[in-house]
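Appendix B, Record 12. Input sequence as logged:
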Amino acid sequence: MSNVIKGNTGDWEIVIGLEVHAQVTTNSKLFSGAPAQFGDEPNSNVSFVDAAMPGMLPVINEKSIEQAVRTGLAINAEINLRSVFDRKNYFYPDLPQGYQISQFLDPIVGKGWLELDLPDGSVKRVNVTRIHLEQDAGKSLHEYSPKSTYIDLNRAGVTLMEIVSEPEMCSADEAASYLKKLRSIVRYIGACDGDMEKGNMRCDANVSVRKAGAALGTRCEIKNVNSIRFLHKAIEFEAMRQVEILESGGKIDQETRLFDSAKGETRTMRSKEDAMDYRYFPDPDLLPLELTQDYVDAIRKSLPELPDQKKKRYMDSFGLSAYDAGVIVAEQEYAVYYEKLTAKHDPKLASNWMTGELFGRLNKQGTGIEDSPISAEKLGGLLSLIEDNTISGKIAKDVLDLMFETGKDAAVIVEEKGMKQVTDTGAIEKIIDEVIAANPDKVAEYRSGKDKLFAFFVGQAMKASGGKANPAAVNDLLKKKLS
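Logged structural output:
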């Protein structure tokens, strides 16, 4: 989708802000010692604090604080040395205390920014307003009874980071790029596993439309989108819906909407509340959180090389294109795999074979790199055979296919199948002589100025050699013979 919607009354701009909820990677919950892991039996990870038993007091989890600070530093944000936990009064049927402990006026992380790598190759900076910590709610289950709602409190109290962007994105592509980049960063630093299928990362999108240069329109919030693909579709649908309403003389109601992935459309969930509806006030059971600058500096030193830093290094040191470097750093597992290849092999050759040939086959199988049947060591074995001219690039593609099928090493396949490249110039010269002798008319045409026929002779020579002749040697000898 472009940044502009062509309407009947002229062009409309889309304005998007995202609120991303990332479940923090910790062993226990934000204010209790109950385990924070996913997939256990319902209500097996619930402490007296999570169940809001009388007299139970919250005790803050230091790891949650560290992960929020790590995330803030990774997105170039200000870390607030003093932050406050508030009670957000709102009825959650699956949060027993009747309020959520969150942050409002004094969050742990202030303003930051991300750089987006857009599909057209351009880069855009989007500002982040804040990151605050809060408890997750439990889960209401409706599948066990037609008349009753069952409650699973395993998730109640798990640490969430809410990462709020400025309303600075102008298309579904930009919003998808923002979520992709943010997911990549939190996975690199180990602050969140980014598993959107399990709900460990989910997104609320605030979408509005306006005529170019006009004031911001009324926004609608699309709640709990759990995939980058669905986010893209939801924004495209919602923007068109709003334009159609405004062009037919209607007005947009501020509301919360849900995205129906089966129908590809958004629908009304409830009217949107404002901050005053939540009656925030500082939680009397929790003192303000005070951090030292030394604590923040120590966390900064512990950060790994981040995706943008890695991308720049690959471009500067290895000469990779912005696109190829971006593909490799998008997931930490890709970068680890690539680093193993570059330890012993040419970085550009490694990039081409990894992002082109390997990823192409993995995508076809629907397999991620973590489950790839071809390890970095095995692909490295194939690259060695290309680098020392044992096989040509064309033969190497066939070898890679056989590696996928059999699980065997490249060297074993090449030996068993007799796929070694012919580099003996005498043998190649004999093949070329036969090709020239068999095509006297084409030789005459070539010599009369039809240079494009050279590719025909190369093809015939390679075919006669069963694809095993060294292409560079074929080219050199053909040029001599035909001239």
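The longest helix spans residues 228-247.
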